[in-house]
Amino acid sequence: MAPSMGPVDETDGDGVVGDWSPETVAALFRALEGVDADVSPQLARSVQATINAVKHAGREFGFLTKSEVLAVLGPENDSEAHDFTLPYRGQTLYPGFLFEPSPGGAGSMRVRPIMKDVKKIADEYGWDGTDVVLWMISPTTWFADERRPVDHFEEPARILAAFEDEAGGTW
């Protein structure tokens, strides 16, 4: 389906790069010192967790670029995918799980029909597409197996109920 554009890094058993090299530390230092305000450890960790999730999504599902989405969906259908993107290294990328083979079309793809309903719920509660994608690839206790919504595409009603509950929840 989607070509794997996720970065391939040498990782330990937990999937974390244990690179404490001077070059890695210097790169992180430059990034943080480029921000005028003080950066809390919590914010730095949150940003890194998001980057890690995007990298993992790329490795697992592959990414498509805008031109690749146009090629597999056709210009009349590409707008269905616009909202569900992940930013990475200056690009806007579409995770491969958004797409499935189009019925009756040899090799052509379509956006999974469930995403139209997910978008309606997201719009109702003010969620953007990036947040939806990150939710779709994150484990949730809403499912008995505590797996991710993307692991339950065969149960669209349950995904929609879980997302409605998550998006509309108050703390």
In short:
This protein is globular. It is built from 6 helices and 5 strands; from the N terminus they run H-H-E-H-E-E-E-E-H-H-H.
Helix and strand layout, with pairings?
Blueprint: H1 22-33, H2 41-61, E1 63-64, H3 66-73, E2 86-88, E3 91-95, E4 99-101, E5 109-111, H4 114-125, H5 129-136, H6 156-168
Antiparallel strand pairs: 1-3, 2-3, 4-5
Helix pairs in contact: 4-6
Q: Keyphrases for this structure?
A:
171 residues; mainly alpha; 2 domains; two-stranded antiparallel sheet
What does this structure look like?
The protein is mostly helical. 43% of the residues lie in helices and 9% in strands. The chain folds into two domains: 1-7 and 18-111, no CATH class; 113-171, no CATH class. The radius of gyration is 18 Å and the shape is globular.
Please trace the helix and strand order, writing H or E for each element: HHEHEEEEHHH
Mean pLDDT value: 85
Distance between the ends: 39 Å
Instruction: Specify the number of helices.
Output: 6
Stretches with pLDDT under 50, minimum 5 residues: 1-9
Q: What is the rounded Rg?
A: 18 Å
- Please indicate the count of domains: 2
Q: Could you tell me the strand content as a percent range?
A: 5-15%
Structural class: mainly alpha
Overall outline:
globular
Instruction: Give the total of beta strands.
Output: 5
Percent helix range: 40-55%
